[in-house]
Structure formats: structure tokens, C-alpha cells
Amino acid sequence: MKLLLATHNPNKVIELKALLTDHPEIEVLTLNDLNIAEEPEETEPSFEGNAILKAQWAMERSGLISLADDSGLEIDALNGEPGVYSARYLGKDTPYTLKNAIILDRLKEESDRRARFVSVVAIAYPKSMHNEGDTAIIVSEGIMEGSIGFEALGSNGFGYDPIFIPYGHTLTYAQLSTDVKNKVSHRGQAFRKAIRVLIEGESHAL
Ligand code: ITT
Fold first, then answer.
1. Catalytic residue flag (residue 93)
2. Most buried of 69, 137, 152, 170, CB within 10 angstroms?
3. How far apart are CA 158 and CA 148, in angstroms?
4. 24: phi then psi, degrees, rounded to nearest 5
């Protein structure tokens, strides 16, 4: 089975490909492999809406089963910001070293450090590949609760990883290897559930 990873974020590609090494039956393609440089505007107000929008857009462009992730960080003391606007928060092109420093500064007197990463993974099927009445889209959510540290630590991963400490750990996401992060992360959780449904659906179709 061919599966298109519908993201232009190279770090998400690394994480998703690492999660797919357990599935040799799935042939993984990226938007780069298909020379698709454009991306749809993320116009929905929710992670779910944008994940579905991106997966359907890529499926229509490619004719392939397409998987998208929409994700973000919710910080309680910032009323849930950056949330669904995580990529655009404090400016789309602002370096994350600066974004993370600004967030740490905003929280410097704050004792409530609670935060969570949320990921919604959507998988869209081309119409030709699913039977009448079957679902054309798989959607699943993963949430990792945790806290915002007092300094940015670690150099793995991307985005807000250096300031987020997942619950039950003492290290930030950026101090964990890709494989360890994937075991606990919001994206790993959402992805594993969605892939299970995809594979079960395929085995029913045989
Ligand atoms: P695509 O839409 O092409 O997939 P994107 O980076 O724009 O790429 P999103 O719209 O889902 O993706 O934005 C997610 C943002 O949330 C991302 O850019 C980071 O700022 C943040 N984020 C999500 N997951 C993260 C993670 O695992 N570690 C650190 N930051 C993360």
C-alpha cells in the first residue's frame, strides 16, 4: 500500500517515517517525492478541521491515500495559546529560539506551568479505493500532558520541543531521541491509532 505523508514540515516527516519502520508493507511517499510544493491554507479553527483539510487536499492532488497531522501546544497560563495557531504564533518566520525565549519570559513569574501537546492525524482515501458506505477518512487524536520548563533545553526535534517536559519525564522533548519521543508523544499516539485502523481496513478489503 502506498501512503503519502501530507506535510511540508521535514521534522514531522522524520518522526512519521520512524513510526512507519514497523510497517514494511506500507510504501511511504512525501510531498517532495511528488514535487508538490504548494500547500492549502489552514482555514479551520480546530486541529481536526485542519488535519482533514490537509489530508483531503493531498489525496485530491495525488490520488494516493494521504496522511496529515495538525498539531500544537496549549499552555494553560496563556489561555491555551499558541494552540491551533502554533506554527504562526509570534510570526510564521520567527525562529523558534526566539519564540521559546518569549514564552519563557511571559511565564517567568508564573507557577502554573501546565501545558499539553495535541495532534490530530487524518488519513484520506481516494474515492476509487473505498467501498460505498465505508468511511473515506480516518481521524484520531493524541494528547501528551506536561509542563513548560524554566529554560530551553535540548537540541533534538523541532518547534517548542526544548521548553516542553512530558508528564512522567524530567527531560524536555528536545532532550529525547526521536524513538523515545515517538513512544510517548501526541503525534505517536494519534499516528499509531490511525495506522491501526488503516491496516485493519486494508485487511478487510482483501
Ligand atoms: P504542515 O502543516 O505542513 O504539516 P506545520 O509545521 O505548519 O506543517 P501545523 O500547522 O500542524 O504544521 O503546525 C504545528 C506547529 O505546532 C509546528 O509548526 C510547531 O510549532 C508546533 N508543534 C507541533 N508538534 C510539535 C512537536 O512535536 N514538537 C514541537 N513543536 C510542535
1. no
2. 69
3. 15
4. -65, -15
Taking the CA atoms of residue 103, residue 182, residue 153 and residue 94 in that order, the dihedral angle to the nearest 10 degrees is -40
- Cell, residue 193: 491509532
pTM exceeds 0.90: yes
Centroid of ligand 1 to alpha carbon of 85 (angstroms): 9
Residue of 69, 70, 134, 161 marked catalytic: 70
Residues 46 and 119: their CA atoms lie apart, in Å, by: 11
Contact 13, 5 (CB under 8 A): yes
Question: With bands split at pLDDT 50, 70 and 90, how would you rate the model's confidence at 206?
Answer: very low
What's the N-to-C CA distance of the chain in angstroms? 12
Is the shortest distance between the CB of 30 and ligand 1 below 6 Å?
no
Rg over alpha carbons for the chain, rounded to the nearest Å, is 17
Q: What are the structural domains, with CATH classification, of the chain? A: 2-205 (3.90.950.10)
Q: Which residues contact 190 (CB under 8 A, 6 or more apart)?
A: 69, 119, 120, 121, 140, 141, 142
Residues 173-194 have pLDDT tens digits of: 999 999 999 999 999 999 999 9
* Cβ contact 121:190 at 8 Å: yes
Encode pLDDT of 1-13 as tens digits. Answer: 999 999 999 999 9
Percent of the chain scored above 70 by pLDDT?
Answer: 95
Q: Strand, helix or coil at 179?
A: helix
For ligand 1, say whether the CB of 158 is within 6 Å of any of its atoms: yes
